Amino acid sequence: MATTAERRLPRFGRTERALHWVHASAFMILLVTGLCLYLPSLAEAVGRRPLLKSIHIYTAVAWAIALVVIFTFGNRRQLLSDVRELDDLRPGRMNVGQKVNAIATAAFAILFAVTGFFLWYGERDTRFRLPNALLVHDWLMYVSLILFLGHLFLAVIYPKTRHSLSGITRGWVDEDWALRNHRDWAKEAIAQEGQALEPAGSEIA
Amino acid sequence: MHETRPYGRRAFFGLVAGGVSALWWANPVSRVLAPLTSQFSQLAGDLLPIGGWRIYTISGSMPLFDESVWRLEIGGLVRKPVSLTYEQLTALPAARQVTTFHCVTGWTVKNVRWHGVRFKDLLALAEPMPSATAIEFVSMEEPYTDSLTLDQALLPNVMLAYGMDGAPLSRPHGSPARVVIPEMYGYKGVKWLTKMNLVAKEPTGYWENLGYDQNAWVGRSNGYNS
């Protein structure tokens, strides 16, 4: 008989985790290359501006393609249910902060893409060179960086919350952690499951 | 089934709409907030050397200034072609100015303290021929070139700067010397300068070949009209 500590609750499915990590990897590459393009000290240390610019632009293109692939081949029903879940800001599987972070991340992704497009295209056709696009792209970077650092702190450092990382890496969390941190969701999930899951390897998303 | 409150989508569309509309209001707002943000960027500038500058280059690496091999050549339609060492350049009559730097992409840096030489003093060494009407500036960063008419190069605030904010020009800012013309956008200010060719007809430079204006007057070119 499993003790409570060993019981696992499924938290994020494969499609959700793929979406998260595609977005996270693209964000980190874009952040690092973007900062090298933006900060004179880094620009001097790294030098190779055209290469960084290409990495930055192609990462953005790859990110957009990966999103389409995930939506095409992933669990669309899950993604649509996630959207409905985020629409209701009351705490559930995710708390209010997580929901607001997810919404802001999605909105900023669109804004980064729009302003980034104008930065790229404006260099090729000056009629599309919007001076404000650069400012907005920079502001988004500052706000996203703050959100990202807060997100990292809660996900990997802060003891009370860092177990949540397991949900987005392995797909499950400990049941008693869930009961302490997301009580209503955990109770509902336990009721639905009826019993603890087998280890994540056998999970089908 | 409980009743959902669609605040999530409102937040999402609100953020997207706010961000897209910022393409119209970002600049005026950033000017209003400048006293606040400049203090912030001053603070950030102490931690990270931002200082409002962005460094744009077009090639794989920034040119490296080596004083033993660097020369400033002044040639083309001149009576006396000149090749100046860094020491000879900095020994010419020095000029100083505090001016605002405008980039065509929308950012500015106020109160930049430049020191260097006026083109009048440089040209006096080479003695341009009467047929010369413009100067083509050639950067060590190939294939970057740009040009100014002689009239533009002789405007009061125009100089070949070898110092910035009290120090020798740094590598990201175009060491050892760069063109400074505050009335025009920064792409006219060729960095890592190594050659000045006096020519009869003003040639188009790197960014002009990509569609930017030959005469890059701040606020009166490249689609700006303030």
Summarize the topology.
The complex is a heterodimer of chains A (205) and B (226).
Chain A: E1 8-10, H1 14-38, H2 40-46, H3 49-73, H4 76-87, H5 96-122, H6 131-157, H7 165-169, E2 172-174, H8 175-181, H9 183-193
Antiparallel strand pairs in A: 1-2
Chain B: H1 7-32, H2 34-47, E1 72-76, E2 82-84, H3 86-90, E3 95-102, E4 108-117, H4 119-126, E5 134-139, E6 145-149, H5 150-153, E7 159-164, E8 167-168, E9 178-180, E10 193-199
Parallel strand pairs in B: 1-10
Antiparallel strand pairs in B: 1-2, 3-4, 4-7, 5-6, 5-10, 7-8, 7-9
Task: For the structure shown, list the relevant keywords.
heterodimer, A: 205 residues, mainly alpha, two-stranded antiparallel ribbon, 9 helices, 71% helix, disordered C terminus, B: 226 residues, alpha+beta, 5-stranded mixed beta sheet, 5-stranded antiparallel beta sheet, elongated
Structure in words:
- The complex is a heterodimer of chains A (205) and B (226).
- By secondary structure, chain A is mainly alpha-helical.
- Chain A is 71% helix and 3% strand.
- Chain A has a two-stranded antiparallel sheet with strand order 1-2.
- Chain B has 5 helices and 10 strands, in the order ααββαββαββαββββ.
- The longest helix of chain B is centred in the N-terminal third of the chain and has 26 residues, at 7-32.
- The model of chain B has no long low-confidence stretch (mean pLDDT 87).
- Chain B has helices spanning 7-32, 34-47, 86-90, 119-126, 150-153; strands spanning 72-76, 82-84, 95-102, 108-117, 134-139, 145-149, 159-164, 167-168, 178-180, 193-199.
- Chain B is elongated, with a radius of gyration of 22 Å.
- Chain B has 226 residues and is of the alpha+beta class.
- In chain B, a hairpin with a 5-residue loop joins β5 and β6.
- Helices cover 25% and strands 24% of the residues of chain B.
